[in-house]
Amino acid sequence: MRQVFRQFQYPTAPSARPGGQQAAFAAEVAAKEEAEHLRLTVAAYEDYQRGILPSGQGARDLITAFKTADKVLDRHDAGPVTVIDDRRVERVLKAKAKTLHVGVGNYCWFSDPSKALCLKLAGTPDADKPLMGMCDSARCPQATHHPQHRQIWADHAANTHAVFLGNPRLSKPERARAQTAFDRATRIVAEIDATTRPEEEPVHDA
């Protein structure tokens, strides 16, 4: 018995085919990432307003951007509702938030590719995105550290000390590299602590 097969048709509209679904998913991910970056930028700005400042090589530029935001917001009358004020802050900081890239233990404010240490190390100075896997936030002029990054660096220092510096069989070159990593992590922790306690004077070793 001869069977007649009808011509196959997609069960959904062309816009929902695999290619369209992938594009829609990518757009949704990008929108959520943009919203999260804006939230993190606003949170950093609110910390700044409370006197909790960022640390790191990029801290000065970020504080300057926040001071500029202060001036812009001061030119507007306060809104009658807090929600309106929050939206105004988000609008002012939206451009800065677009430069934010989130690292494991830092924020990267990628506004000038020529200043990005990771691109210099990779030999790609004209790239339009940072190479977060090569980030050395202790030296990059566009990187900042915030209170939420403290535990990451504290754990890194503790693990480096226990696993490497506590190993008597470690070679001299390996010990030197471990010591450098430990010193960097402890310095970052100290800098974060100094900026989260603005009422206290930094303690300097005698």
Across the major sheet, the strand order is 1-2-3
Q: Could you report the average pLDDT, rounded to the nearest whole number?
A: 88
- SSE ordering: HHHEEHEHH
Estimated radius of gyration: 24 Å
Total count of helical runs of at least 4 residues = 6
**From the helix content, strand content and strand pairing, which structural class follows?**
mainly alpha
Low-confidence stretches: 199-206
Percent strand: under 5%
Largest sheet: 3 strands, antiparallel
Distance between the termini: 98 Å
Number of strands: 3
**General shape:** globular
Helix content: 40-55%
Walk me through this protein's architecture.
The chain is mainly alpha-helical and 206 residues long. Helices cover 54% and strands 4% of the residues. Strands 1-2-3 form a 3-stranded antiparallel beta sheet, with no helix packed on it. Strand 1 (100-102) and strand 2 (107-109) form a beta hairpin.
Write the layout of secondary structure elements.
Elements: H1 18-49, H2 59-74, H3 82-97, E1 100-102, E2 107-109, H4 117-122, E3 143-144, H5 150-165, H6 172-196
Antiparallel strand pairs: 1-2, 2-3
Helix pairs in contact: 1-3, 2-3, 5-6
